[in-house]
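Example 5.3 — Guanidinium exporter
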Amino acid sequence: MTSPWFFLLIAGLLEIGWAIGLKYTQGFTRPLASSLTVLAMIASFYFLAQALKVIPVGTGYAVWTGIGAVGTAILGIVLFSESTALPRLACIGLIVAGIIGLKLTSA
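Solution (predicted structure tokens):
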């Protein structure tokens, strides 16, 4: 059996994919980008649902959104030249610390 935490990781990575994908859809006017984004959304929710069969919903949802937020922020820096100001990076680090804390304190 595959670990629910692995499913949650996959769900979070797919969330990054669809969040970044939204930028490329140009308001859902580009069919290929739009289709790939919607598929990533569906797959992300599927893997989240599988993980939540075992992981408490509060923990799972927080980790899922945390992975998505951190990954999307990092890719925003890399792909779209978004700010790398120290306070922004520190806040991203706090999200990572929260994700790790939730994982370590989960039964």
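Remark. DSSP finds four helices and no strands in the chain.
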